[in-house]
Amino acid sequence: MSKVTKRKHVMKEALWDDYELPKQNQSIVKVLKSKGNNLHEVATPKGEEFLVSMPTKFRKNIWVKRGDYILVEPILEGDKVKAEIVKIMNKDSIKYYKENNVWPKEFDDCKKEDITKEDDLFVNSNRAPMIVYESDNDSSENSSDSDS
User: Fold this and answer.
1) Where does the signal peptide begin and end (predicted)?
2) Contacts of 21 (CB under 8 A, 6+ apart)
């Protein structure tokens, strides 16, 4: 199988071409940060934090960033790494889960908070902040008016 064909099949599998509800042992989690070596720190709806691994077939084909929602399946033999990524969720799959009442309500609240915090996230430190000085023209015009 060529690289392109393999990538096509992996992308199709990972990005939800088929909408199916999670099985009993699978859960929806939110990515908090990447830890390197294909490990990601995630949070459950209850607030638990642990590491998940990306399967070998997804590596170099799929990227997961902070704030994404993923479907994971637990790993029994793991101490630190407790689950493995099964699917990466997009807007359509999230909408499908909400319609079927499977989406955790805790993540609905987080989504609203993230939108409000988004404005304050990025500050460009490469440029000096712009400082605006008010001119004294207004006060000089007032004094010239009183002179005449």
Assistant:
1) none
2) 97, 100, 102
